[in-house]
Specification:
The protein has 18 helices and 15 strands. The chain has helices at about 30-45, 45-50, 60, 75-85, 100-110, 125-130, 150-155, 170-185, 235-240, 275-280, 285-305, 325-335, 350-355, 355-365, 395-410, 425-445, 480-485, 505-515, and strands spanning about 5-10, 65, 90, 115-120, 130, 140-145, 165-170, 205-215, 215-220, 250-255, 310-315, 340-345, 370-375, 415-420, 450-455. It has a seven-stranded mixed beta sheet, with helices on both faces.
């Protein structure tokens, strides 16, 4: 039996569909990233992956990868399983997706039995199975948060449906696990045991792989060898491009990365991507070149696969190139010396926009048409402060935001923003924030769109303020909150920040009402036309 693989991004909602006014990605961008090296092996002329069902064109390979939003997508997932009959199912899950991941694994086991090997990975496993000290690379240093899927299975809290759990960097370890699954599959298609002792600890990446053996958890820890991200292909090259974001209206839109790290260079206490949890940036010196290459590959892929459509991309770095002036200058020089035919967007902080104006002007002359900023709150100090609030002594957060938006308008760069409630702010402060955003839209024509989130407590490798949630229930059950939270990027009734507590329905309703009253987006670049697929970022 050849290796047959299906990959799915698990749903985070019990039912329903994302509201049309909410920012929503149709692409499992993180899953594409994790699987890109395996896809590259499938294109080469040897090994298990080359003999797999992924040794096909990128657009056909893309059909083996699925993004689910809610359990309403379960029927489509089941059809994919029946069609492909995978012996390896990769499930990627954010924390709110754990109940959905369990449901996907249950359905796979019910349909395929022991012929499918189910591997769970993604941000949730990474934050719940981790090293007490990153320098201690051995089994005894591995810790399990109460929400660790392996711990939950060992304790009988959830069904034993995950054969392996993978924490950390996925690119090379997924490829290695595929070879092990292939070797453990009999000619009749039934799985033998995949022995973790056969796992090479020198497979590049910072990873932990765990499994249940009897009633005990067994783990293997990598040697921590660095991944050479300069040699990895871009997700668009491996899986194609099929989406078109509204802000690049009419252009096909790729997700691109500089691969400088798993999270953000800042350390804001409220953020699940903060540096103290996700780790420090890596290989900064080559980051600008990697980002340029990914943009070039996105342009070429779109040109080949969509001959009548223009190309666009969104840089999925939490902050593009960490906001480093040196790296941004290097990237701008590459664009100036070797121009591309692609429009792109990225994320910067408000203070970075104000202090790196010359760099942003250079980018705007060479394809930058959209920026996304995190506004979060009007008063950072009232919610404990923000690491990125570096200009606090110069002017208020609102004043600096207004200056940044004005600067972007002057250089014909459109802008969207995210706001975050549930940090401990008063409800009056939420209303004031939305009213101020409405005024900015009227005065400056920005920001569009406004992405709203309600703070969720993540496991954060144990740094979760003592919440110790197990996350086995849907973050928002089938109740009245559900219809309103479909208009949010991330929100939860059951897993709030512990010092804040659950949101009130009346407050969520009022916020949703005000959001729906914000002015509709206006095109800022008349040459662009409207497309029928919604724009979306940041990703899952």
């Amino acid at each position: 039996m050849p290796l047959k693989v299906v990959a799915v991004s698990a749903p985070d909602w019990i039912s329903g569909a994302k509201d049309g006014c909410a920012i929503n990605s149709r692409d499992p961008a993180s899953l594409f990233n994790a699987c890109r090296y395996a896809a590259l092996l499938a294109e080469r002329d040897h090994g298990a992956w080359h003999n797999s069902n992924w040794a096909i064109s990128r657009l056909e390979r893309r059909r083996k990868v699925m993004l689910m939003y809610s359990l309403d997508d379960l029927a489509a997932f089941e059809r994919l399983l029946v069609k492909e009959k995978p012996n390896m199912l990769l499930i990627g899950a954010m924390t709110l997706c754990l109940p959905g991941a369990i449901q996907c694994a249950l359905r796979a086991k019910a349909i395929l039995g022991q012929e499918v090997f189910v591997i769970l990975g993604g941000r949730h496993v990474t934050e719940t199975m981790y090293l007490s000290d990153p320098t201690l690379r051995h089994r005894d240093a591995v810790r399990h948060h109460p929400g660790s899927p392996l711990r939950l299975m060992a304790d009988g809290r959830i069904p034993r449906v995950f054969d392996l759990a993978v924490s950390g960097d996925g690119e090379h370890i997924i490829a290695a696990l595929g070879a092990l699954v292939d070797a453990a599959t009999t000619t009749r298609g039934r799985q033998q045991t995949v022995d973790l002792a056969n796992l090479d600890k020198n497979v590049p990446g910072d990873w932990i792989v765990g499994a249940l053996e009897g009633g005990s958890i067994r783990v293997e820890v990598s040697a921590g060898l660095s991944i050479d991200y300069n040699d990895l292909p871009s997700p668009s090259r491996m899986f194609g491009v099929t989406a078109a974001f509204d802000v690049f209206a009419g252009r096909m839109t790729a997700h691109v990365f500089s691969d400088i790290g798993r999270g953000c260079v800042y350390d804001c206490s409220f953020c699940s991507e903060r540096r103290s949890v996700t780790g420090s940036p890596r290989d900064l010196s080559n980051a600008g070149d990697r980002l340029y290459r990914q943009l070039r590959e996105a342009q070429d892929v779109i040109s080949e696969d969509h001959t009548t459509r223009g190309a666009s991309a969104f840089v999925e770095d939490s902050v593009m190139l960490g906001g480093s002036p040196k790296l941004v200058d290097r990237f701008a020089s590459l664009l100036e010396n070797r121009p591309l035919r692609i429009s792109f967007g990225a994320q910067f902080t408000v203070d970075q926009i104000l202090t790196r104006q010359s760099e942003i002007v250079r980018l705007a002359r060479n394809g930058l048409t959209y920026l996304f900023v995190g506004i979060e709150t009007l008063s950072p100090t009232s919610v404990g402060g923000m690491s990125k609030d570096v200009g606090r002594n110069r002017a208020s957060w609102l004043r600096r935001t207004q200056e940044a938006l004005t600067f972007m308008r002057e250089h014909n760069v459109s802008c969207g923003c995210s706001v975050l409630f549930g940090l401990g702010e008063t409800h009056e402060a939420r209303i004031e924030l939305l009213q101020n955003l409405s005024h900015l839209q009227e005065q400056i024509g920005r920001p569009y769109p406004v992405s709203v989130n309600w703070a969720v407590q993540h496991p954060l490798c144990g740094d979760d303020a003592g919440a110790s949630y197990d996350y086995i229930e849907w973050g928002t059950p089938d109740c009245e909150f559900l219809q309103y939270f479909h208009g949010f990027g991330e929100a939860s009734l059951l897993y709030p920040l512990p010092h804040v507590g659950r949101p009130l329905l009346s407050e969520v309703q009022e916020v949703s009402h005000l959001l729906n009253r914000l002015p509709a987006p206006r095109p800022m670049a008349p040459a662009l036309t409207t497309d029928n697929q919604p724009g979306s970022w940041p990703p899952n």
